[in-house]
Every structure is written in C-alpha cells, then in structure tokens.
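Hello again, I could really use a second opinion on something today. I've been puzzling over a protein and I'd love to understand its fold better. I'm sending you its amino acid sequence along with the backbone structure tokens. It would help a lot if you went through both lines with me. I've dropped the whole record in just underneath, so have a look.
***
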Amino acid sequence: MKTIHSRARAILGALAAMTLAASALAAPITYGVNQAIGAGSVTGTITTDGTLGTLSQADITGWSLLLSDGTNTFSLKSGSSAVYLQGSDVTADASHVYFDFSGADSGVLAFQQNLFSGSHYYCNATQAASFYCAPGESVVPTDVFSNPNFPRQALSGVQVIASAAPVPEPASLVLMAGGVLALALRRRQAPR
C-alpha cells in the first residue's frame, strides 16, 4: 500500500511539473472571427503565436477568412495572402483579440490578397488611418475599393474582433488528473 501512495505522489508531482512547464511556454491560440459588417461579413479564424497583450505583425501566424459583401465572397488564407499590422491598437488575451478603433496612432489590421492592391481585404482601422482603408471595420471581397458602397461600419473604442474557444487552465487539468488518479487508487484498494 505504501508503494501505491508513493507512485501516486510521484505521478501527481510529474503532472504538476508538466503543467507548469507547459504554461510557461506560449502555445498558439486560434480565435474565431464572426463579424457582421453592414450587409457583409467576415468569418473564419485567426491564429497567433500565443502572445498576450499588444500584438505585432509577427505574432499573427495564420488565418483563414471568408469575406462577403452580401453577394460576392472571397477566401483569404495564410500562405496565399498577407497580413499588415501597424500601430499598437491590436491586443489579445487568452479569450479575445481586440482592436482599439479610437487609437491615435493610425493603427491598422488588414488581411489582403496582395497588400496595398486595393482589392480583396478585411480591414480594421482607427479614425486616423484612412489612407489604408476606411476608418472602422470594412470588408471588400471584390475588386471595388473605389466603390463607396462596400460594406463598412464606423466603430469607436475597444471592440472584440475575434474570440477563442474556452480552453481548460493548467491548474484545472492538474486537479482533474489528480481526481482520476485518486479514483483509480481507491478502486484498486477496495476489497473484492
């Protein structure tokens, strides 16, 4: 019986050590995008390297977005399109990606087939960033950047632009593993 308890303590210690090590390393986070923009929309995913706080362009490691203006659709995927991030208006926590539409640093977050081509893009921009795309949120699935009727909406303040699926925290995983181990040990010790 003493051997069983020693093994249980060793296993729990190993689980705790693995959990601490895993939580120290930032794991990629995939956020879901589901934005209605006027008559249009943007749906899909954005993946980061797990950085929390202010994001840089290098922190965005993948995306798969479907752009719609209500009639036309266009797909943007990492590897065949590009991301452009300027300013410090994009932030993330473990659950959400945010954009500060009231930022004063000409912030922009744009996903586009060919950067600065004026076509096929999803863009978030502060009021001061109208050079790159319309202030607020806009979606242009077709080659109509000069058309003033493409879907866009003015936004202000910090807004959620993507949300992650809930993931159990490391401490919860250790508690769950400990409970399963305790049940297994109790079952072993029960008289037959």
Residues 29-164 form one domain. The two ends are 16 Å apart (CA to CA). The chain has two helices and 13 strands.
